[in-house]
Design brief:
The structure is a single chain. By secondary structure, the protein is of the alpha/beta class. The chain has two domains: 210 residues, Thiolase/Chalcone synthase (Peroxisomal Thiolase, Chain A, domain 1, 3-Layer(aba) Sandwich); 154 residues, Thiolase/Chalcone synthase (Peroxisomal Thiolase, Chain A, domain 1, 3-Layer(aba) Sandwich), CATH 3.40.47.10. The longest helix has 19 residues. It starts with a strand and ends with a strand. The relative contact order is 0.19.
């Protein structure tokens, strides 16, 4: 079995577009920023975390941002042409190119549906641009999209299907997404408060992240190794996981079994933690069925916003940047413990320690992915 290393990562998000910007920015409470959008006949405003200094308003900007991201990843990884020829490209996104087609739809009164939204074409275009000759696959499973791409990449490397894979996860601002979440009453009016008794919903954000999974380790002192994971679908609701946590617990159990890890050996949980009532409750209830003593819990969406299909790649990359700098960031937005949940996420920064990390993704539609990552040296 091959060892699946994170060889390199690049991310553009609300905190910044370089590891230094991101690790510096995450030390501070996120600045409240708002987006106005059309909801029915009204113009309303909600908090939103946009990518710093980048804006996608059309097809040219869309591909320019993704191409810049991949170019930085390839350059920092020192991939040669032979390595790129055998490299897979695995893409995870919820909206795909809807941010490009939405303005066209809105400007043409004769349009009855959104134009082509990019399935297949995005991957083919990027692979051709960079000479990536391996498998090209797209994953669109709501909030777990790029997490599923990471899991598929790890399985492909460990089974010898390919030696390396670029995982690209992204979601950019569009009114369709904002209106959809607003229609469910899920957008917060006062900020993301993960696991807090007074949590009021989600703060959306945009971000894109590219991670190179490889049999070759990174050039950094400590490695991040994707040990395994699992995905399951909770069919109890068309929108969410059951708050009894049964499917959440089973996904965590399957992931730990796949990685041959006992629950007592998990040193940190990066929670999905959207800040919505049912999502936080389902995740916490499920985790408590697995862990007799809860490991430290970290939530990143109060700093980054919920980057939807991109969050698997974006949040893993951001966490890796912080670990490389020797710290685990604090969770912002939490103030009052919910007695029915009894989870207190990290209230201050702590020292990064080698060990096993669990990355939870429990998204819209009941899609669930848990990744098991080892920070340190490969055994």
């Amino acid at each position: 079995m091959n060892c699946c290393y994170l060889r390199e990562a690049v991310t553009f998000c609300s905190l910044g577009n370089t590891p230094d910007e991101i690790t510096h920015g995450i030390h501070s409470n996120p600045i409240e920023k708002y987006k106005e959008f059309t909801f029915g006949t009204e113009i309303i405003s909600r908090q939103y975390r946009g990518i710093k200094d980048k804006k996608v308003t059309g097809n040219d900007e869309f591909y320019a941002v993704l191409e810049q991201l991949l170019l930085e990843l390839i350059t920092k990884s020192h991939l040669d042409s032979a390595q790129m020829e055998e490299c897979a490209l695995l893409i995870g996104s919820t909206s795909m190119s809807i941010p490009c087609s939405e303005p066209i739809f809105k400007s043409n009164p004769n349009e009855t549906m959104l134009p082509h939204i990019g399935y297949g074409g995005i991957g083919e275009c990027l692979a051709q641009t960079f000479g990536l000759g391996g498998e090209v696959s797209l994953f669109t499973t709501a909030c777990t999209s790029s997490a599923n791409a990471l899991l598929y990449g790890q399985m492909g490397i460990n089974t010898g299907k390919f030696q390396r894979a670029i995982i690209l996860g992204f979601d950019f601002y569009n009114e369709l997404t904002m209106s959809g979440f607003e229609s469910f009453g899920l957008l917060s009016r006062d900020g993301c408060r993960p696991f807090d008794a007074n949590r009021s919903g989600i703060v959306l954000g945009e971000g894109c992240g590219a991670i190179l999974l490889d049999i070759i380790p990174s050039s950094y002192n400590s490695q991040l190794i994707l040990r395994g994971g699992a995905n399951r679908s909770d069919t109890s609701s068309p929108t969410a996981h059951n708050t009894n946590g049964i499917m959440v617990a089973q996904t965590i159990r399957d992931a730990l079994c796949d990685a041959n890890i006992e629950p007592c050996n998990v040193g940190l949980i990066k929670a999905h933690a959207t800040g919505s009532e049912t999502n936080d409750r389902a995740e916490s209830t499920g985790a408590q069925q697995i862990f007799s003593q809860m490991p430290p819990v970290l939530a990143l969406k109060s700093s980054l916003g919920h980057t939807l299909g991109g969050c698997g790649a974006v949040e893993l990359a951001v966490l890796w940047f912080c670990l490389r700098e020797g710290f685990i960031p604090k969770t912002y937005g939490f103030e009052v413990m919910d007695d029915s949940i009894e989870i207190i996420p990290s209230q201050g920064e702590s020292e990064a320690k080698e060990g096993i990390l669990l990355l939870n993704h429990f998204g819209f539609g009941g899609s669930g992915v848990v990744l098991v990552v080892q920070f340190g040296e490969c055994e």
